[in-house]
Design brief:
196 residues; mainly beta; Elongation Factor Tu (Ef-tu), domain 3; seven-stranded antiparallel β-sheet; 3 helices; 42% strand; repeat; Riboflavin_synthase-like_b-brl; Riboflavin synthase
């Protein structure tokens, strides 16, 4: 379980393919603190650490993960948001995030608001029932608040700290981000669907 509060960014230093799997080696200030079998959020995707060595760690994404996230676009030099799982005695500063990405969203525009940044995204219409005005959403592993929700478009505002300490600073119109909708909303939608 994660909070959507990014701890640091890492850089993909190597990508390899084995069958339909992609293995990524990532260099970061957190890598030396990790251990094998630990769950870590990578752009909002929960991946298992397979190896730690020389300031890097290695993770593998299977075909299912690659098909539903933006990990298939990663290459050497890609900047990745990282968060370790929340300790049971820790504070929940964002919202409950599972690291189970629902889909990708496309950045439609980025606007400098002279002190913050406004990002507008489009997302698959089939998920419209899972997003609400002023609700929580997780984009590339970042817990954010939705506003300007119209049809399949929504906006988020990024404060300078978040902009400087995540890969939002590299995001441009046309780029995709991993999106995880609020877990509570998903359970309520399922409850309604079943007519319980």
């Amino acid at each position: 379980m994660f909070t959507g509060i990014v701890e640091t960014t890492g850089t993909v230093v190597a990508v390899s393919q084995t069958g339909t799997n992609s293995t990524f080696t990532i260099e970061s200030s957190l890598s030396h603190t990790l251990k094998t079998d630990q769950s870590v959020s990578h752009n909002g995707v929960c991946l298992t650490v397979e190896n730690v060595a020389n300031g890097t760690h290695t993770v593998t994404a299977i075909a299912e993960t690659l098909s539903k996230t933006n990990l298939g676009h990663w290459q050497a030099g890609t900047t990745v948001n990282l968060e370790r799982c929340v300790p049971m005695n820790g504070r929940l500063d964002g919202h409950l995030v599972q690291g189970h990405v629902d889909a990708t969203a496309t950045c439609e525009s980025v606007s400098n608001q002279d002190g913050s940044w406004l990002f507008t995204f489009s997302y698959p219409q089939q998920f419209a029932h899972l997003i609400i005005e002023k609700g929580s959403i997780c984009l590339n592993g970042i817990s954010l608040t939705v506003f300007n929700l119209v049809d399949n478009l929504f906006s988020v505002a990024i404060i300078p700290y978040t902009f400087a300490h995540t890969n939002m600073q590299h995001l441009q119109a046309g780029h995709t981000v991993n999106i995880e909708f609020d877990m509570v909303g998903k359970y309520l939608a399922r409850w309604k669907e079943l007519g319980v």
